């Protein structure tokens, strides 16, 4: 089951739409995981091409070894976002996630309430926007 | 009756007269100092030119006076605010005088304020004018020094002993404590209700306090201690003990910083650490720490946040300074302080490590080295990582491992030797627990290796050169970023970017008190690179690169160790060298020689590792090329997914 551990969107309007997008993209991620077979350790990238006809935004995906999926939805008008930037953002997410894992008071599978994580995500999103 | 404040001391005198009129003809004598102080307080609560003080700020101020609420009500009534409905200057001044009277133990009556009274004391004012307002000096450092047993309700007794900051207010008699005077908590304005609530908690005051002194090794008494720490009512044994303690602490001129750990507290924390982990230089694992801190009965999210704050290297374990910081935060939280968003400077592991080494008078040195903590650590680290990718700082040494260790050592420094085998056990356990993927394992193992190494390297990083704080970086994170960047070399974006073999990044074991640790450490250093092949080297490389953008202050540690000097560092080096003299002079020349031999050995090790690093880098490049080829093949073979 793919319940969200953490979800954040900036700006906050249309948040529900982003949530929906993220949820639907989980299917694609799962598909990719199964397709990869055993070589799933790489950071992967969801196709740039998830473009709805009306809105245009891109959805990127990233999976960790423990099957924790990071999904990022970015606005396509933000063309300055290059591939490696996305990758670096996923790296940051992954690092922060591992930091949270270090915390003995965190039970894997809980929702993430860490302030450090929040700060990191916020700062990252501010950079993009 | 009320004359609108005309501003200036005229208002004070006017208020005095008004006070006289307001109280039905009672002439309220206010001395010059009193007038001035009252006026300051009044203007704080009610910025001129308003006529009346804001109710909330006045309420806050009154609560800060640590008087029981019914006394405050009485005061409000007596001073006439209730009657007129607001706090005019007259009422305010009368109220202040009454507060002074109440704090002196006099009943709240108009008559009592006719006497000559000391200035009222307000404990929990936030700004530095606390001193002016006569808050006792012991406040913070002293206050937290007796964290558990003495949530001291009696501030007055302490002012007896420690009234150095308030020459004007005579020492209050310890006897006449107003009924149920709350504990003195300084900076953060505690709501009085909280103080009451705390007193309502478990009340094992005297007993835990005594137990605290004994070395409680069992969990039983310690847990009982822990529970009792939360709230205390004052009792005479506590008071007397705390007074002694305060007298001791007054000697250590602690500034009134609630986040500063006093010597006593530190000793207590160290004892607690020992009870959990006999070796002071090893880690406390996450689960052990979790059990321990859970005993404090703080809510789990808060404990989680405390952990995040204190575990600066995010390795899932606490070293001694990390543990002290975490413990201190727990104590502060239990005593009503809100947890900060970022770790205060005085709780940083480097600071704690260095502070444990040098006497307090060298705190000034720390301040000169330290940089203000920006926002979260991570944002800084990432910005640093990104900067590092942009700027190729040539003065990285080839000793990536050393660089990493240096990073960590900057975080944690202690004079004691490490048991190397222990660190390695720790390392292997941790690496095994992590993801199996080499990629992912790389950063994690590196972090553990680094922490273990730096623990191993913690040799007397002594007083003169407190490691610059900002180094509590995610070296792991930064290196991971750059790692991935290398991974992406498949697109040959950065294939051309080969960081030049970093010039000697001096290893951390700069000034070591003994040689043995250095030798033993050198071995692990060499073992590790060979064991982890190119992955480590590439990772470390980025770590090293990440470090240069960081503070030159850290380099001064290393350069001092190795004598490697870059122009920009020379001034800092001089500083550190001079500072190194201070403790060195105190030691025998034999130790100097030992240090020098250790330095030489480290240099040799550096050279070896530099060579190794360059070789590994070559291997890494080749492996990258192979990977690129394989990936292109894979892409061709993979069925195209159509949306």
UniProtKB/TrEMBL annotation, chain A:
Chief localization: cytoplasm
Where in or outside the cell it occurs: the entry states: Cytoplasm, Perinuclear region; Endoplasmic reticulum; Golgi apparatus
Return the InterPro entries for the record: Longin-like_dom_sf, Sedlin, TRAPPC2L
Please provide the record's keywords in A-Z order: Cytoplasm, Endoplasmic reticulum, ER-Golgi transport, Golgi apparatus, Transport
- One short Pfam family name for this protein? Sedlin_N
Its Gene Ontology cellular component terms are: endoplasmic reticulum; Golgi apparatus; perinuclear region of cytoplasm
Which Gene3D superfamilies does its entry note? 3.30.450.70
Cross-referenced SUPFAM superfamilies, in alphabetical order? Answer: SNARE-like
Instruction: Name its GO BP terms in alphabetical order.
Output: endoplasmic reticulum to Golgi vesicle-mediated transport
**Family under the similarity heading:** Belongs to the TRAPP small subunits family. Sedlin subfamily.
- What is the name of the protein in this document? Trafficking protein particle complex subunit 2-like protein
Q: Which organism is it from?
A: Serilophus lunatus (silver-breasted broadbill)
From TrEMBL, chain B:
Q: Which SMART domains match?
A: EH
Q: What Gene Ontology molecular-function terms does this entry list?
A: calcium ion binding
- Bias class Polar residues marks the residues at 232-241, 527-536
Pfam families per the UniProt record, alphabetical: EH (PF12763)
Q: Keywords assigned by UniProt?
A: Calcium, Coiled coil, Metal-binding
Domain EF-hand residues, every copy: 298-333
Which superkingdom heads the taxonomic lineage of this protein's source? Eukaryota
Query: Does the UniProt entry include the keyword Membrane?
Result: no
Quote the biased-composition stretches of kind Pro residues, using this chain's numbering. Answer: 168-181, 498-509
GO CC annotations?
A: cytoplasm; plasma membrane
Q: Where is the composition biased (Basic and acidic residues)?
A: 154-167, 242-258, 381-390
GO terms, biological process? endocytosis; endosomal transport
Which CDD domains does the UniProt entry name for this protein? EH
Under which name does UniProt file this protein? REPS2 protein
- Identify the species of origin: Serilophus lunatus
């Amino acid at each position: 089951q793919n319940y969200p551990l953490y979800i954040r969107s900036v700006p906050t309007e249309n948040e529900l739409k982003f949530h929906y997008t993220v949820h639907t993209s989980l299917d694609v991620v799962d598909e990719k995981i199964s397709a990869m077979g055993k070589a799933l350790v790489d950071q992967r990238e969801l196709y740039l091409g998830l473009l709805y006809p009306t809105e245009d935004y891109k959805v990127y995906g990233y999976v960790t070894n423990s099957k924790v999926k990071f999904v990022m939805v970015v606005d396509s008008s933000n063309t300055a976002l290059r591939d490696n930037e996305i990758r670096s953002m996923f790296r940051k997410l992954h690092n922060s996630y591992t930091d949270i894992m270090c915390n003995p008071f965190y039970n894997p599978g809980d929702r993430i309430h860490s302030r450090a994580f929040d700060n990191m995500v916020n700062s990252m999103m501010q950079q993009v926007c | 009756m009320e004359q609108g404040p005309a501003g200036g001391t005229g208002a004070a005198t006017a208020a005095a007269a008004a006070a006289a009129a307001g109280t039905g003809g009672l002439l309220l004598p206010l001395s010059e100092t009193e007038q001035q102080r009252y006026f300051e307080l009044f203007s704080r609560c009610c910025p001129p030119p308003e006529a009346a003080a804001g109710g909330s700020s006045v309420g806050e101020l009154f609560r800060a006076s640590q008087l029981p609420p019914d006394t405050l009500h009485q005061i409000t009534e007596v001073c006439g605010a209730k009657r007129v409905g607001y706090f005019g200057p007259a009422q305010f001044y009368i109220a202040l005088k009454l507060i002074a009277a109440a704090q002196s133990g006099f009943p709240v009556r108009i008559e009592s304020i006719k006497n000559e009274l000391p200035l009222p004391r307000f404990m929990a004012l936030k700004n530095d004018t606390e001193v002016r307002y006569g808050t006792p000096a012991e406040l913070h450092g002293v206050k937290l020094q007796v964290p558990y047993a003495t949530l001291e309700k009696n501030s007055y007794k302490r002012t007896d002993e420690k009234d150095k900051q308030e020459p004007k207010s005579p020492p209050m008699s310890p006897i006449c404590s107003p009924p149920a005077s709350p504990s003195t908590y300084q900076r953060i304005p505690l709501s009085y209700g909280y103080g009451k609530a705390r007193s309502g908690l478990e009340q094992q005051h005297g007993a835990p306090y005594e137990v605290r002194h004994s070395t409680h090794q069992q969990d039983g008494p310690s847990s009982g201690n822990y529970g009792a720490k939360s709230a205390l009512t004052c009792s005479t044994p506590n008071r007397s003990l705390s007074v002694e303690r305060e007298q001791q602490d007054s000697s250590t001129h602690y500034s009134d910083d609630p986040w500063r750990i006093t010597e006593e507290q530190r000793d207590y924390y160290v004892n607690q650490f020992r009870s959990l982990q006999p070796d002071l230089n090893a880690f406390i694992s996450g689960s052990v720490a979790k059990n321990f801190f859970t005993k404090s009965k703080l809510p789990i999210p808060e404990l989680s946040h405390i952990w995040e704050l204190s575990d600066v290297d995010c390795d899932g374990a606490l070293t001694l300074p990390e543990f002290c910081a975490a413990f201190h935060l727990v104590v502060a939280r239990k005593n009503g302080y809100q947890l900060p968003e970022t770790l205060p400077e005085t709780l940083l592991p480097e600071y704690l490590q260095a502070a444990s080494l040098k006497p307090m008078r060298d705190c000034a040195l720390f301040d000169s080295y330290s940089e203000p903590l920006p926002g979260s650590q991570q944002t800084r680290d990432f910005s640093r990582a990104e900067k590092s990718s942009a700027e190729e700082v040539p003065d990285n040494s080839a000793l990536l491992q050393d660089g990493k260790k240096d990073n960590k050592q900057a975080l944690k420094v202690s004079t004691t030797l490490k048991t190397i085998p222990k660190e390695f056990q720790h390392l292997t356990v941790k690496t095994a627990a992590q993801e199996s993927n080499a990629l992912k394992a790389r950063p994690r193992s590196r972090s553990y290796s680094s922490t273990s190494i730096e623990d191993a390297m913690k040799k007397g990083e002594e007083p003169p050169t407190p490691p610059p704080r900002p180094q509590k970086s995610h070296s792991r994170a930064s290196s991971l970023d750059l790692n991935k960047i290398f991974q992406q070399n498949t697109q040959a974006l950065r294939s051309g970017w080969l960081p030049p073999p970093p010039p000697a990044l001096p290893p951390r074991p700069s000034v070591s008190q003994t040689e043995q640790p250095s030798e033993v450490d050198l071995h692990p250093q060499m073992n590790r690179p060979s064991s982890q092949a190119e992955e480590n080297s590439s990772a470390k490389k980025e770590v090293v690169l990440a470090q240069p953008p960081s503070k030159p202050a850290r380099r001064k540690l290393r350069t001092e160790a190795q004598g490697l000097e870059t122009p920009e560092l020379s001034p800092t080096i001089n500083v550190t060298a001079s500072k190194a003299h201070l403790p060195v002079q105190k030691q025998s020349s034999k130790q100097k020689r030992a240090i020098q031999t250790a330095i030489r050995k480290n240099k040799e090790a550096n050279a070896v590792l530099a060579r190794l690093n360059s070789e590994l880098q070559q291997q890494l490049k080749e492996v990258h090329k192979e990977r690129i080829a394989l990936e292109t093949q894979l892409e061709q073979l993979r069925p195209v997914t159509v949306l």
